[in-house]
Amino acid sequence: MNRPPLSWIRSEILSMKGYSVLESPDGTIKLDAMENPFGLPEDVRSKLAREVSALSFNRYPDPHARELKEAVSKVIAIPPGRLFLGNGSDEVLLNVFLATSGTIVVPEPTFSMYRIIAGSIGRTFRGTDLLPDFSLDLDGVDRMLRDEPPGVLVLASPNNPTGLSLSMESIGAAHRIATKWGFTTLVDEAYFPFHGETVLQSLPEAETLLVLRTFSKMGLAGLRLGVLIASQTVIEMLDKIRLPYNMDALTQKAAAFLLRESLPLLNAQVQEIVDLREKMTREMAAISGVTPFPSRSNFILFRVEGPSPATVFRTLLAKGILVRDVSGHHPLLSGTLRVTVGTGGENRTFLAALKEGMKS
Fold it and tell me: 20 to 30 Å CA-CA from 211: which of 151, 234, 327, 356?
């Protein structure tokens, strides 16, 4: 019996659109991926090289990542027993979705990997629209959760790609709605370093409250370190399905070293990015046809009027600047692009190119 090609692949995967990463030619100013543009100074890199050179690469890493957990624990002031580490926040999300049941509900537009990860493991996913100003539609969340099997409500604050944060009051209200309908609330605080507000200070610890963090945005994107903060009981459940040795030896040693030795440097870079973000927002608002949205992250969503987002994207790319055209991701994002805050020089180059591109 002849079967069609790839008939052994699940139909959901065959039809799924995966996460796309844009290729950037050499010399491109890369302002599309929400990365820290500054990097590490040479003296820190030299010390780090000595640290990792002593690793035994013929041996498996610590399966519990104890040194790294201790370092993370001191940074975020949460006991190690309440921390779950993953290869980026994506792996943490995958484990949470694998361990839970019911429907995954997410206000949109938001980070596309929530939908992709849910689809990859056959979970039911439901998006509920944000309001036109990108704030949370609590009535819409209530209606959605009422009719779905209890699962996980994901709230991103600050949100990608909007850059806006949800108020602590609205997050608290959504969590109460989720609890009423039997859902667990996962608050994704990936951009916390640039925002500074966290539900950990406003909501009581509960087994139905999970908080996701990452160290990628503040300068360790290459190490892929995601962290879930939850009750110890939840952490123990997630550890049952965590793949053995999921945190490699390089990440464990390098991240622990940098969090111990270079946190003041990374925090100073974060503050510089915040200052540059505010300056960049003001200067973008002064360009005719450009409307930036207020951001609490390390990127800025902006709407263009006149030339299409695709035209602006191509114009910038022709000048060696890579941003992200998100205008087709959701109806509420019509006419928008997203730009990461770069160095002062990179931002000036972008602004000059954007100003010129808006005249085309």
Answer: 327
The domain of 31 spans 11-41+264-357
| pLDDT confidence of residue 1 | 61
> Residue 5: inside a domain, yes or no?
no
- Answer with the one of 241, 261, 281 that is the final residue of a domain: 261
Of 233, 261, 289, which residue is a domain's last? 261
Domains identified in the chain, total number: 2
**Percent above pLDDT 70 for the chain:** 99
Q: Are residue 125 and residue 197 in the same domain, yes or no?
A: yes
Joined tokens for residue 187: 């608050």
Q: What's the pLDDT tens digit per position in 207-227? A: 999 999 999 999 999 999 999
**Which amino acid would we find at residue 9?**
I
